[in-house]
User: Fold this.
Amino acid sequence: MTSNKSAPGTKPQTELQTRSVLPGFIVFEGLDGAGTTTQARLFVERLRAGGAAVVATAEPTDGPIGRRIRAVLSGAEQASDRTMAYLFAADRSEHLDDPNHGVLAELHRGRYVVCDRYLFSSLAYQGSLCGFEFVRMLNAPFSLPEHLVFLDLQSKAGLERIKARGRSEIYETPHIQDTVYHGYRQALEQFRDSTMQIHHIDGSAAPEAIAEEVWSRIAIAPIH
Assistant:
């Protein structure tokens, strides 16, 4: 029988200090309109141009659970905030563990995996809408990426970009985006002491300038 007590004179390790980090897994996060999709794409293109093996992915996924989430986000279907939190967690579990094309399988093959949104979106969005602690517990089993790139853009600027593209989703309102921005701040603070590397980048700059900043921040090394 093992004991959870720490040895005398030592401090117990926190959940964040013991939570696994996945080498080669890189995640882009930010408000709607912050440019996560663009920056993830540019980063993938640069990795491939350098000869790296890389897989581009996103959440929600294109799997059956992810498609249901996208239908709700578009307004075509309805679900409660709590149900959405469960759906995102289930989609994430499949995204990580699928034996053929899951994140873990791709990393095991020696490929980088670049993801547009991950569990931090759940903490910011669903955590703001149905309780941060509830969503944190749902996502506690999931490993962290090696690198988290947070594109910091105020909600007003993000909504202006969304308006320019001509389509919107259910969370893309001023009130929700303001709330979610603070949700991201809370999420980033929660992971401040983790071994994951957090890159906080100004999302208001030109896409090319942001891409250069991202590239300069992330040290690319072979995956072991």
The chain is about 50% helix and 15% strand.
